[in-house]
Amino acid sequence: MRTPIMAGNWKMHKTAAEATALAAGIVEQVREVTGVEVVLCPPFTALGTVAEAVKGTTISLGAQNCHYEAQGAFTGEVSPNFLLDFGCKYVIIAHSERRQHFGEDDALINRKLKAVLGLGLVPVFCVGESLEQREKDLTFDVLRKQVLGGLAGIQVQDPSRLVVAYEPVWAIGTGKVATPQQAQEAHRYLRDLLAGLWGTETAEGVRLQYGGSVKPDNVRELMACPDIDGALVGGASLDAGSFARIVRFQ
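Predicted structure:
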């Protein structure tokens, strides 16, 4: 049985003080929730304060990105070791905004995935197609390329070591959301791809998230899909009440 995982990606929002207040509000509103793993992914500058805010709770800490090297002359970058130092369990890798705005390709993403897995962090590995690609019926081709390229040379036997997030680019921050049928179809395809890499047993244990304009009023029908195990939440995670309602989808 896969435990649902709800992660809030705060992107480039919230000062350290604002992040502390938001984290405290979420802690207060989800403290009675069981059977769901909650992850908060604040900006790098707020990791320390959010770590303190969630200490002693069941909420996990995640980061939004990292470099593939543990240390070195990489001005402005953040080592995965730094994330471990803050107490991070998760790190988002290959978010569509990293692919689109910062030129991250499958080869770079593969290096990052190998690095974080090697250090014991759990990557939230993002994949998804653009609107143009979907309209050209290329969704599965894109997902296949991104999955096989990103996971090239990687062996995962413990399904708890990886989360895969399907985030159709056309649904991120647009207010559009994939229909449950569209989302389930993509998630099933992703699970089948993982089965081809590592076998059915491992693939069936990997948690798959949906990301793309997830809100309190659509999360329940998305979570009713058999292969959707959680959500990677953007804008709706910036409000404690909204995010708490998503966490309490049942």
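Summary: The two ends are 16 Å apart (CA to CA).
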